[in-house]
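Next comes the chain:
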Amino acid sequence: MKDLLVLGIESSCDETSAAVVLNGREILSNVISSQIKIHKKYGGVVPEIASRKHIESIVPVVSDALAKANKTLDDIDVIGVTKGPGLVGALLVGVSFAKAVAFSKKKPLVGVNHIQGHICANFLQHPDLEPPFICLVVSGGHSHIVYVKDYVTFEILGQTRDDAAGEAFDKIARAVGLGYPGGPLVDNMAKKGDAHSIEFPRVYFKDRSFDFSFSGLKTAVLNYINIANQKNESINIYDVCASFQQAVVDVLVENTLRCAKNKKLSTVVLAGGVAANNQLRQKMQDECCKNGYKCYYPLTVLCTDNAAMIASAAYYEYSNNNLSDITLNAYPSLKLGKNSVNEF
């Protein structure tokens, strides 16, 4: 197959991003316009504001990505765009723009599952990484253990039954007064705390499921804080963050390694925003080493939402003849199934 240049577009939440990627592996540009400062004062993402900012940013971001790659739209072979899951208004900005470009320039269009994009972020950094492997995808909205059979075929082995791991981080950060986004703030505070000072619960299901549940842990932390407040006792925020984070990491790592053992696979991969967490990276690396497994994770910038990962996923979908057309829509509740072209 000849070299393929993919223009990736990502607008599923509060980052407007565009990237140019060669053959699914080499990043020529990856431009990200974040809205964190805008949403920070609200304590979380406001969907309507996010959509409006995407409309303002999409053209300059795509233009910047093409310029930094020293390419024009005429040089691009494929247009890839996030079709879901995510905020419907935000998704529609990227999908509409991508369809317009693909139609006007007569370029192939590929709608990409956002979760698949996070998995593919690892292909951009690790030239030796190839399926099959087990991937833990953890972010503000998702906590999945995925069996990656090949580049476009996935099976979910475990997922959260309530809160996503990143969502729990945000709620605990808010409870102890750290603000938004919670993940990096809790991670930094935890470095100064004792992870064994407070015994918070770890949830494992009796049916030996690989699923997660973080709502009980979240409630336990909130109860600990509330009881201390009622008694006019001070709490050690560093210890609370460290103990909470350790409880989350322990369950994520144990269930992921159980999946790897169950599938008889020796390669474990991290993806998603929470994959940037230092404790998760360290513990997964250590446990993989003990078991003789290989462990991969992306650079921090590739853990968070970005268009390079979408371009990579689009390359593999295009290579497998999984194309979209002008009827492509946004799917806010899109699932990642055995085949990535499934809409729901």
In short: The longest strand covers residues 26-34. The two ends are 31 Å apart (CA to CA).
